[in-house]
Amino acid sequence: MGKLDGRVVIITGAARGQGEQEARLFAAEGARVLLGDVLDEQGAAVAEDIGEDRARYVRMDVRREEDWTAAVAAAKEAFGRIDGLVNNAGILRFNELTATPLEEFQQVVQVNQVGAFLGIKAVAPEIEAAGGGTIVNTSSYTGLTGMAYVGTYAATKAAILGLTRVAALELAAKNIRVNAMCPGAVDTPMANPGLLDPDKMTDEAREAMAELYRRVVPMGRVGRPEEIARLALFLTGDDSSYITGQPFVIDGGWMAGVSVL
Description:
7-stranded parallel sheet; globular; alpha/beta
């Protein structure tokens, strides 16, 4: 038996990185998953690899309310119900705060913050109709502490924590639990663009990045997307049945403090 047998879960940003690993793990644990993304070729390939009996892919721009409506309809048509949501889709931009163009700020807000809001708004009524379930929002280490040059990203991730707490309070009576994951550095194409084109990342740059994580992360390494997926599984399954409204830091000890060694 799997930990998610009989569950139907929508996962956004599921074409690669954390979302892909969440989709694969959830399906392996018995869930049927609807993968949403704007990377059509990659998303469709992941769904095909998981198997038609377990997965479907839909093009989904989380900034667009009509895309959420279409995704909900597709999930219900394919699998009959919706029991869960993982708001994983997000973008990251590096910039000094006072040099950040308004257009860039609004773009990050639309994807990260508005996308999470629209997901809760669209999917929570369907989860309630199914008898209850879970919503897992993806915040960040930076939503709990500061980090230079990612001000827009940090602002949206802090907002997601506030949204998570309010949603947990409002939806508890409807048997819907809402929690947030706060990853630190994770080896995905968003945080490590070198993964998109390894030939463009020199050995020196790769080693410099590894050395950075050895120095600032107590566990001495960057996180793996499958490790984040296991936290999403915990928060979606019954093992977390008495937990709601909480942020879960998963960062290799980064937020514990500064080492003097």
